[in-house]
Amino acid sequence: MKIRMPPERIQSTKKTMRFLADGTVVEWTPSALLIYGYRVDDATGSNVLDLLSSPLRRELEESQLKKACEHSGAMFEVLRHRKDGSPVYVTVAYQLGSDGITAMESQLEPRFKPDERMDFESIFREILDFTPDAIVMSSSTGEILHTNRQADAMFKYEPGELVGRSIGVLLPCHAISGYVALPNEHISQARSRIMGFGPDLNGIRKDGLEFPIETSRSPITTDNGVFVLSVVRDVSYEKQAESKFRGLMESAPDAMVIVDSEGVIVLVNSQTERMFGYDRSEILGKSVEVLVPMRFGSVHGEHRTRFFKSPQQRAMGVGLELHGLRKDGTEFPVEISLSPLETAEGTFVSSAIRDISERKLIEKALNERNLELISAADSKNRFLANMSHELRTPLNGIIGFAEFLGDGKPGPLNATQQEYMEDILSSRRHLLQLINDVLDLAKVEAGKMELIPSEFHFTKAISEVCAVAKPLLLQKYLKLSTLIDPGIDIVFLDQQRIKQVLYNLLSNAIKFTDPSGSIDIAVVPIGPDRIQLTVQDTGIGIRTEDISRIFREFEQLDTGASRRYEVTGLGLALTKNIVEQMGGQISVRSNQNRGSSFEVLLPKRQGEIFL
Amino acid sequence: MTRLNILAIDDNPTNLRLVSDIFEYEGWQVYRAEDAENALEIIDSKSIDVVLMDIALPGMDGLTLTRKLKQNSATRHITIIAVTAFAMKGDKELALNAGCDAYISKPIDTRHIVSEVEGIHLMATSEQDTTQHVEDGTSGDDAN
Predict the structure, then answer these.
(1) What per-residue confidence (pLDDT) applies to A112?
(2) 3-class secondary structure, A400
(3) Residue A360 pLDDT more than 80?
(4) For residue A229, which of A156, A119, A122, A127 has the smallest C-alpha distance?
C-alpha cells in the first residue's frame, strides 16, 4: 500500500498508545498526554474511540480502525478532540501486533492544512474583500487591526498600510474624539448599530480629501478581547442627491416643512425659519404642532393620522381659515398644501406653507371697498326714491289745487286771476319735467337706468316723435324736414330711450330756434353697423367756447336765454348719458346765430359694437 | 253718476284736503284718515266702497294696511287704490302685489281722477262678483 506521508512528518511521529482490537486502551504514553490531555489513569481501560473521536466522526474512525487492523502501517490524517473538547489534527499510523494495535501519532502544526480543514481566516478575508462596503477592524482603543480592499481603496492607502495605525487617521480632527470614544459605548451595549440618519460624518483620505461617509460599528467579542468592526460607506452620491433636494426646497417660494408620521419635523427650509421666526435647530426634531396655534393643536394630530392612512397630494383644510404660530406667539393666516414623500425610511409628509397675510389684507380691503360701493349705490338709490317722493308730495298739492282753482270748481275767477292761474299751470309742467329729468339723470349715473333693447323700425320711431312735437313746431311756425336713408330699417335698441334722445334734441332745437326758422332731421347709415342721426337747426347757436359745456348738468349757457327759452339745463346731459350707455357718441357743431347741428352716432344693434 | 262712499288716507293734510275736495265736489261721501289706525276705525263703522291709499304713512304703512284689509273677508271687497308719491320703477308692482286694485301716482290729475276711480271700482267689483260666483256658487257673499 502506498503511504502518502510526507517525509518531514514521519520523523515527528511518536508512539502514543496501544489498544486491543475492541478499542480498549492498554498503554498510554506521555506523547498521548501531550496531544490529548488525558493522563494514563484517565485513558487506560477506556475505549479509544470514546476518548478521541467526536460523535460525528466516530463511524469514520471505526472504519479506519478496522482498516488498520487489516493493513498494518496504514496512515491517516484525522480530526480528534482533546480532553477539553478542543479539536486537534493528528497524523496517525497503526501497527498491528500480537499484543494489540500500537498507534504512532504526531500533532499537525496549524500551518499544515489537512484536506478537510476549513481555513476560516482566509475565507473571512475573502468575504471581507468581496463586500462592497469598506470594512475596518479596530481594537477598542482605536488601533486598526485589519482593513479590507475596499477600505484601502476608499481611503487611498496601500493594502495593509493602515494596519497598526489609529482609526483617527481616517477622520477629520474634529470628529475623532467622538468617533473613537463611541465604540466603548457600543461595546458596553453589545449590539450593532445600523447606518442611517445620524450626525453628518466625513472621512478623510490619505491625500487629505474629505468625503461624506456613513458608518455602522459592531462589537466583536473574541478570546483576545473586544474588537470593533466598522463598515464605512461613501455617501457622496447620496449627499449630492440630498443637496439637490435641499436646493429644491430652498428655491421654493413657500416655507417647506417635512414631517414624519409621528409629526416630528425632520427638515425645513430657510423660508420656514423666516416665516416662523425660528432657527432651524430650534424646531428640527420637535413636533410640528409648535407651528400651529394651540386651539388647532389637538385636531391637527388627528388630521395627520388620517393623512397618513391615505397619503395623497392635497390642499390642507380647504375652506378653512388656517393659521401659523410664530416663535413670538403671533399668528398669521396661511395656505398649506400637503404631499406624501416616500423614502427608504418610510413615508413623510411634505407641506408647503404660504403666508397669505398680505392677500388677506387686500381681500379685506377689496371687500370693504365693495361694501362701501354697494352701500353708496344703495344710499344713492334710496336717496333718489326719497327725493322723488318728497318732491312729488308738495307738488301734488300745488298742482292739484291750482288745477282745481283754475277750473273754477270752488267758484269763478276774474280775468286777472284766471291769467295768473294759467301761468301757475304752465310752470307746473316745467317743474314736473325738471323733476323727472333730475331723477332720470341720477338714475343713469347710479347705473340704475336699464336699457331694454328690442327690434323696431327706426323710421317709425322718428315719425312718432315728430308727431308729438308737432304742436310746438306749429306754435313757432317752424319748418321741419326729415331725410331718412332708405337703407335704415330695423334696429335693436331701447326704443323708449331712442325716442327720448330724439325728443330732447328736437325740443332743444325748437326752443332755441326763433319763429320761422327750420329744423332738419337726417338719418344715414355709417358702414354696415352704425347709423348717424343729425338734428340741425337755424337757431341762436352756441359760442365756440361754450360747446364743451353744453353736455354738463345744469350748464345753462345764458340765464337770460334759459328764461326766455325755458330749459331745464339737464336735457342734453341726460341725452349724452343715454347715448353713451347705448354704446354711442354725441357731438355738436355750431356757429353762433347761425344754428347748431347735433350728431348722434349709434350702433344699429346695442351691445354688439361700441363706438 | 254713482255716489260712492270713499275713504281718503293721507298723512299730508294738504293732499288729504285736495283729494277729499275733488270727490266731495262731485257729490261723493268722503271720509278722511291721516293714519292706518284712524282708517281702520272708519272702515269698521262706515260702509266704505273705495279707499284712496297713501303708501307712506306714520306707523302702519299703506301696503301693510292693504294686505290686512284684503286678508279680512269682511273688508276684502273694498276697492283699494294706491295714490302715492312713490313713482319710481317697481313702486306700482309693489302696490299691486300688496293687494291694491290700482295705482295712481302723484301729482294726481284732478280733472280725470274721479272718473278714473269710478272706473276702477266698477271693474274691481264686477271681477269680485265673477270670482265669487266661481268660488262660492250661489251661496251668499260677504262682498255686498
Answers:
(1) 41
(2) helix
(3) yes
(4) A127
Nearest to A404 among B56, B87, B110 (CB): B110
Percent of chain A whose predicted confidence (pLDDT) is above 70: 83
Residues of B in contact with A405 (CB under 8 A): none
pLDDT, position A84? 82
B105–A392: do the CB atoms touch at under 8 Å? yes
pLDDT at A566 over 60: no
What are the φ and ψ backbone dihedral angles of A370, each rounded to 5 degrees? -60, -45
pLDDT in tens, A271-328: 999 999 999 889 988 888 888 888 776 677 777 777 777 777 777 656 567 889 999 9
Residue with the larger pLDDT of the pair A346 and B98: B98
Asked if B14 lies within 8 A of A388 by C-beta distance, the reply is no
∠ CA(A519), CA(A521), CA(A526), 5° rounding?
150
What is the distance between the alpha carbons of residues B8 and B50, in angstroms, rounded to a whole number?
8
A–B: how many Cβ contacts below 8 A? Answer: 63
- Residue by residue, what is the 3-state secondary structure of A280-315? HHHHCCCEHHHHCCHHHHHHHHHHHHHHHHCCCCEE
Residues 6+ apart with CB under 8 A from B29: B3, B4, B5, B6
- As given in the structure block, the three cell numbers for residue B23 are 270727490
**Which residues on A lie below 8 Å from B12 (Cβ)?**
393, 396-397
Instruction: Report the amino acid identity of residue A115.
Output: D
Would the CB atoms of A385 and B88 count as touching at under 8 Å?
Answer: yes
DSSP string covering A140-161: TTSBEEEE-HHHHHHHT--TTT
Residue B95 phi/psi, 5° resolution?
A: -65, -45
Neighbours of A202 (CB within 10 A): 16
Q: Which of A61-70, A384-393, A472-481, A574-583 has the lowest mean pLDDT?
A: A61-70
Q: With a cut of 90, say whether residue A529 has pLDDT above it.
A: no
How many whole angstroms from its chain centre is CA A81? 72
pLDDT of residue A124: 76
Distance, CA of A572 to CA of A550 (rounded, Å): 7
Q: Is A73 left (phi over 0), alpha (psi -120 to 50) or beta?
A: left
Alpha helices in A310-412 (DSSP H): 357-406
Please give the DSSP secondary-structure letter assigned to residue A547: G
Interchain pair B88, A439: CB under 8 A:
yes
Taking the CB of residue A430, how many other CB atoms lie within 10 A of it? 12
Place of cell 416662523: A276
Residues 6+ apart with CB under 8 A from A583: A602, A603, A606, A607, A609, A610, A611
CA distance A199 to A149: 26
Kind plus residue range of the DSSP H or E element containing A455:
strand A454-457
**Secondary structure class of A73 (helix, strand, coil):** coil
pLDDT number for residue A453: 87
CA neighbor of A117 nearest in space, from A92, A88, A82, A94: A88
Percentage of chain B exceeding pLDDT 70: 87
Give chain A positions within 8 Å (CB) of B21.
404, 409
The CB-side HSE value for A501 (13 A sphere, CA atoms) comes to: 33
CA A496-A502-A505 angle, 5° bins: 140
Here the cell at position A114 is 489537512
Work out the burial of residue A407: count CB atoms within 10 Å of its CB; fewer than 13 is exposed, 13-18 middle, 19 or more buried.
Answer: middle
Q: Which of A384, A390, A398 sits opposite B88 (nearest CB)?
A: A384
The model carries a pTM of 0.42
Residue A537 — φ and ψ, nearest 5°? Answer: -130, 175
Task: Give the residue from B11, B14, B34, B63 with the most A CB atoms within 10 Å of its CB, the best one to mutate.
Answer: B14
Asked if residue A396 lies in contact with residue B85, where contact means CB atoms within 8 angstroms, the answer is yes
Q: What is the pLDDT of residue A115?
A: 45
